[in-house]
Amino acid sequence: MRPRHLTPNRAVFLSILVLLALALSACGAASTGALSDEDRQGGDDAAGGAPAPAASEDRETTTTGPEGPGGNAALVEQRIIKTGEVAVEVDNVAVILARVRVMADELGGYVGGSQAGTLDESASLTLRIPAARFDELLARLHEMDEVEVVSEATNEQDVTRDIVDLEARIRNLEASEESYRVLLDRAEKVDDILAVQSRLDEVRGQIEQLTGQLQTVEGQADLSTLTVTIIPRGEPVAAAQAAWDPGAQFESAVAALVGLGQGILNALIWLVIVWIPILLVLGVIGLLIWRGILEVRRRMPAQR
User: Fold this and answer.
1) What angle do CA 249, 250, 253 make, to 5 degrees?
2) Which residues contact residue 67 at a Cβ distance below 8 angstroms, ignoring those fewer than 6 apart?
3) How far apart are CA 94 and CA 90, in angstroms?
C-alpha cells in the first residue's frame, strides 16, 4: 500500500484547523476557570458574612471584565438578581389579592404565578417586577391599609461577572465560528469539509447554549421576583364556653353506645369467620402431633 503524501496546501489547511481547535479549547478552559474562581470567591464572601450590596445599587457602574484596547479595565453596569418573600395578614383575602395584582401592573410588572382557594383560605402570588422598583413594591406593601406584614425575607446576588464572562465567551466562540466558515469555503477535500463542518456545528452548539444562559441571567436581573403570601386573620377565641345542652349530650351518649355496639359486633364477626376456623385447624394439627408422640412412647418399651 502506497503511503499518502500531504500536498502543501492541504498541510497548511490542516495546520490552521488544528491551531483553531487548540485556541478554542484553551479559550474555553480559561473562561471556565475564571468563572469557577469567581464562584469560589463569592462563596467565601457569603461564608464570611460579607454584606450584600445596597438595595439602591442594583445597577451602578463598576470596574470589571477584560481590559479594553487602551489597557484600562472596561466599565460595565452592575447587575443584581433580587428575590424576596413576604407574608401578610389581612381581613379580606380576595380584596387584598386584587389590590396586589393592580399594584404589580402599576409598577410595570406582572403576576408570574398564583395560588388561591376560597375566600377564607390563604393565597399566594409570584410577582415579577422591574429591579429598579423592587424596593418600592416592598414599601407599598407595608403602607397598605388593613395589611400587617408578619414576615419578610429578601436576597441579592451580584451576577455582573457572570454576565461579563458569558458575553466574552460568546464573542470568542463567534470569532472562531467565522474562522471556521472561512476554512469551510476554502476546503476542497471531502475529509476537510467534514472535519470543518463538525467543528463548526460544535461551536454553534456552544454559542446557543451560552446565549440561553446569558438570556436567563439577564432576565432574572432585569425582573426581580417577590412571592407574596396573603393569610386571613384568625378569629378571636371565645371567652366563655358554650352553655350546657342536654339534647347534645344525649346524642353524644347514643352515638358512643352505637359505636361500642358496632365494635363488639365487628369483633364477633371476625372471631366467627376468621379466628375460630384458624384455631380449629391449629387444634387438629396439634392433636395429630400429640397422638403421634404418644404412639412413639408406647412403642419404645416394647422395643426394649
Assistant:
1) 85
2) 73, 74
3) 10
One domain for residues 106 and 148:
yes
Decide: 31 and 168 in contact? Cβ < 8 Å.
yes
CB atoms < 10 A from the CB of 29, how many? 10
Q: At 22, is the pLDDT very low, low, confident or very high (cuts 50, 70, 90)?
A: low
Q: What values do phi and psi take at 139, rounded to 5?
A: -65, -40
pLDDT in tens, 130-177: 999 999 999 999 999 888 999 999 999 999 999 999 999 999 999 999
Residue 176 three-state SS: helix
Instruction: Show the domain range for 18.
Output: 9-55+158-219
Domain count, the chain: 2
174 and 162 within one domain: yes
Asked whether the beta carbons of 96 and 230 are under 8 A apart, the reply is: yes
